[in-house]
């Protein structure tokens, strides 16, 4: 604002210097006095009284977190080339689907399905797929996720499962080693009572009280 007043004063003084008629000179002089007074007041005013410019930039609203209903119940089948996952879900719109296919996983999200958001994801598939060929087919009461296999063949399961109970060749030669592996897995995955029972059986077996460490709970 101060810059504008200074420019106005400069221009009025130039006009005053070339004005000839007394009335015009008087009007210009009066306006110059008003602007000089305004300029002095602006210069002496505290910073807190100077109006702060109002920002007209649009406010960015943070989007709320999206909640999903997990689709854990579905059926599937396969052939040599692909796997089909069938989900019973009515009211899905193709343009409201978000897909993320990776070589060993997939994540499919369904938005605004009768007021809810749904999600079907498998973080680690049994075998690799071809992401760019995978797709989702929508029908009135069902959705089909089609996964194309990276290599032909049969999948024993849809999800990858690490078979902890499968012994290696060396342990197959030693029956006792297989039993010990079984006990270790049962101990890791069992409840507190199971752990106490196995620990006691293990201690008894080492002390020679029993030759069979599984005796008593097998």
UniProtKB/TrEMBL annotation:
GO terms for biological process: response to stress. GO terms for cellular component: cytoplasm; nucleus. Keywords: Acetylation, Cytoplasm, Nucleus, Phosphoprotein, Ubl conjugation pathway. It comes from the Eukaryota. It is found in: Cytoplasm; Nucleus. One of its GO terms (molecular function) is ubiquitin protein ligase binding. Pfam families: CS, Siah-Interact_N. Residues 144-218 form the SGS domain. The keyword Acetylation applies. SUPFAM superfamilies: Calcyclin-binding protein-like, HSP20-like chaperones. Residues 69-159 form the CS domain. InterPro entries: CacyBP_N, CS_CacyBP, CS_dom, HSP20-like_chaperone, SGS_dom, Siah-Interact_N. The keyword Flavoprotein does not apply. May be involved in calcium-dependent ubiquitination and subsequent proteasomal degradation of target proteins. Probably serves as a molecular bridge in ubiquitin E3 complexes. Participates in the ubiquitin-mediated degradation of beta-catenin (CTNNB1). This is Calcyclin-binding protein. It comes from Fagus sylvatica.
């Amino acid at each position: 604002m101060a810059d504008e007043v200074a420019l106005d004063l400069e221009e009025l003084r130039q006009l005053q210097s070339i004005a000839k008629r007394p009335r015009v000179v008087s009007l210009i002089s009066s306006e110059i006095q008003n602007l000089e007074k305004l300029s002095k007041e602006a210069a002496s005013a505290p910073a807190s009284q100077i109006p702060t410019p109002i920002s007209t930039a649009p406010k960015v609203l943070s989007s709320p977190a999206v909640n999903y209903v997990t689709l854990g119940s579905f059926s599937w089948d396969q052939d040599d080339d692909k796997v089909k996952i069938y989900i019973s879900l009515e009211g899905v719109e193709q343009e409201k689907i978000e897909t993320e296919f990776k070589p060993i996983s997939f994540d499919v999200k369904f938005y605004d399905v009768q007021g809810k958001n749904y999600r079907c994801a498998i973080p680690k598939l049994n075998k690799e797929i071809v992401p760019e060929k995978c797709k989702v087919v929508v029908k009135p009461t069902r959705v089909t996720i089609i996964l194309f296999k990276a290599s032909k063949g049969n999948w024993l399961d849809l999800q990858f499962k690490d078979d902890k109970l499968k012994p290696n060749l060396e342990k197959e030669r030693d029956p006792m080693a297989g039993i010990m592996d079984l006990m270790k897995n049962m101990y890791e995955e069992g409840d507190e009572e199971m752990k106490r029972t196995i620990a006691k059986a293990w201690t008894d077996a080492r002390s020679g009280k029993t030759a069979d460490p599984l005796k008593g709970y097998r």
